[in-house]
Design a protein that fits this description.
This protein is mostly helical. The chain has a domain of about 60 residues. The chain has five helices and no strands. About 85% of the residues lie in helices and about 0% in strands. The longest helix has 30 residues. The protein is flat. InterPro entries: BV97_02767-like (IPR058117). This is DUF3147 family protein.
């Protein structure tokens, strides 16, 4: 149980740290947020829990393909906010568009033999 508390604490610390850094420097916070910290933490937790390196490699490859549709959020959100839409509406539209892109990406990946 202590191990799971540690996992949650470390993961939460990363998120809170980025949010706090953003108050002082959005550029540095963006750099930290752009790093695949969530993926790195997942890889490390898997390794510490005894996962085979092949499973970690498989996860890494799958993450690569799913990062592509997620880029829509980062393109659309600032565009909508700059167009005068409210934050929550912009975020909602961006998340919905990203979800559509994920759904559209899955059959494309299957067609090219990529299994998720």
């Amino acid at each position: 149980m202590l191990y799971y508390v540690l996992k949650v604490a470390v993961s939460a610390f990363v998120i809170v740290a980025i949010a706090e850094i953003a108050k002082r420097s959005t550029g540095f916070a963006a750099l930290l947020a752009a790093l695949p910290l969530t993926s790195l933490l997942a890889f490390m937790w898997m390794y510490f829990e005894g996962a085979e390196p092949a499973r970690i490699a498989e996860l890494s490859g799958q993450i690569f393909w799913l990062v592509l549709p997620s880029l829509v959020l980062f393109l659309l959100l600032p565009l909508l906010i700059r167009q005068g839409l409210s934050f929550w509406l912009s975020l909602s539209i961006s998340v919905a568009a990203t979800a559509v892109c994920y759904l559209a990406m899955l059959p494309v990946l299957r067609r090219f033999g990529v299994q998720l």
